[in-house]
What we know:
Elements: E1 2-6, H1 13-24, E2 28-30, H2 31-41, H3 44-54, H4 61-71, E3 81-84, H5 90-102, E4 109-114, H6 117-133, H7 144-158, H8 160-167, E5 171-175, H9 180-195
Parallel strand pairs: 1-3, 1-4, 2-3, 4-5
The structure holds adenosine monophosphate.
Adenosine monophosphate (AMP) binds near residues 32, 56, 85, 86 and 92.
Amino acid sequence: MRLILLGPPGAGKGTQAQRLVEQHGIPQLSTGDMLRAAVQAGTEVGKRAKAVMDAGELVSDAIVNAIVAERIDQPDCAKGFILDGYPRTLVQADAVEAMLAERGIALDTVIELVVDDKALVGRIVKRAEDAKAAGQPVRKDDNPAVFEERLREYYKKTAPLTGYYYAKGKLKTVDGMASIDAVTAEIDKVLAAAAK
Ligand code: AMP
């Protein structure tokens, strides 16, 4: 199964992706996680991405496309994968099409988690508080000021992807404001219907 989770920051893509990993035994490919790992490791990519990420802006298409192209060739992706936070621009969406076509594979479904913007800042603040309480590092971009920029980037560059995938007949929408379990159940239904 090859799946894309779409939705603004704080929509619950990461949470749902982790559940899908457990249920389906395929990896979650989060470009945000991969970039944070690169920053942490101090790689060339990490050095170039850090300031952009801290400002809540998008890292260049060339960088993220290269990271994903390399990642999907790893053996654990052979049965499929969940793309979380990628693609985020139309250029990336075209790139993923090309990557999959080159490998003779196709995208199964794109699921958009539809959420109310007003609830998102609260979710991000809570995520930062939870991380702190658990003794985990708090993401530098999980604060209201940077969040506003992330949301602006989402509407400018990522929201058009819903139209892109709708036109391809791949888009399914799920109410992301429901409880975590209810969202999981709805995603399960969508995937079961798509598999028929
Ligand atoms: P995320 O963890 O998905 O919220 O991503 C955190 C940050 O990483 C974003 O605000 C961007 O700066 C960067 N990033 C993650 N994925 C992408 C992507 N597909 N394209 C560009 N930048 C990305």
